[in-house]
Specification:
The chain has one domain: Jelly Rolls (Sandwich), CATH 2.60.120. The chain is globular and about 45 Å long. It is mainly beta. The chain has 3 helices and 10 strands. Helix 1 packs antiparallel against helix 2 (26-35). It starts with 9 loop residues before the first helix and ends with a strand.
Length: 206
């Protein structure tokens, strides 16, 4: 594939990876994603791909996917380009209800114990129906971790949560930033700015 005269385009690869996921061929999907990375992209590897939100996303399933952004704006900035300490993913809420998720990534964690960690800053953050990272098993949609983001104003706060991936029934997971809002009610308006500098997962020794 890599050596051919016309290597497949990113959106073509995304379609094939998506097809594998639909057919529950998770191993093949992840292998194809890894195979399609450039040397530069490989440096961003880990349990979470591009954990520092460098502005190089491809939109493939195991990379960050930017989804519906009604009521908010998401921007990625490299730490070199950004204002001091402001590298990462900036989520700006527009004083409106927020129901849907804007950011997600498919991940593949083998069974075991893990810790998810976030370094984040916030300015005047008001989250009437919560804002959290969830990790769900693909296929069953059962939630294995929920990681709440606090309201208020803070600078480079370190947050972490331990969680477990069971031995069966969870071959691939979906990591997603979401709210607990069921409907878009104007009583619950999201305000403020969140900057996520780094989101990472590490395996804990059993």
């Amino acid at each position: 594939l890599k050596e051919s005269d016309a290597p497949p385009k990113s959106n073509e690869l995304s379609a094939v990876i998506g097809g594998y996921i639909l057919q529950k061929e998770y191993e093949s999907a992840y292998r194809l994603f890894l195979f399609s990375l450039t040397d530069e992209q490989r440096k961003l590897g880990g349990y979470i791909f591009n954990s520092t939100f460098e502005p190089v996303y491809s939109g493939k399933h195991f990379d960050w996917q930017l989804r519906d952004q009604s009521g908010l704006e998401v921007t990625f900035a490299t730490s070199q380009d950004a204002v001091e300490g402001e590298g990462g993913a900036t989520v700006r809420f527009l004083n409106t209800p927020v129901k849907n998720t804007a950011l997600q990534q498919y991940i593949q964690l083998p069974p075991g114990s893990y810790k998810i960690s976030l370094a984040a800053s916030a300015r005047n953050l008001k989250l009437p129906k919560e804002l959290f990272w969830s990790i769900r098993c693909v296929g069953s949609a059962s939630e294995i971790a929920r990681f709440n983001i606090p309201e208020g104003t803070y600078n480079r706060q370190a947050l972490s949560l331990d969680f477990l991936v069971g031995p069966a029934g969870c071959p691939m997971q979906l990591l997603r930033l979401e709210t607990a809002a069921i409907a878009e009610s104007w009583r619950f308006r999201y305000v403020g700015t969140l900057v996520m500098h780094k989101l990472s997962i590490e395996r804990l020794s059993s």
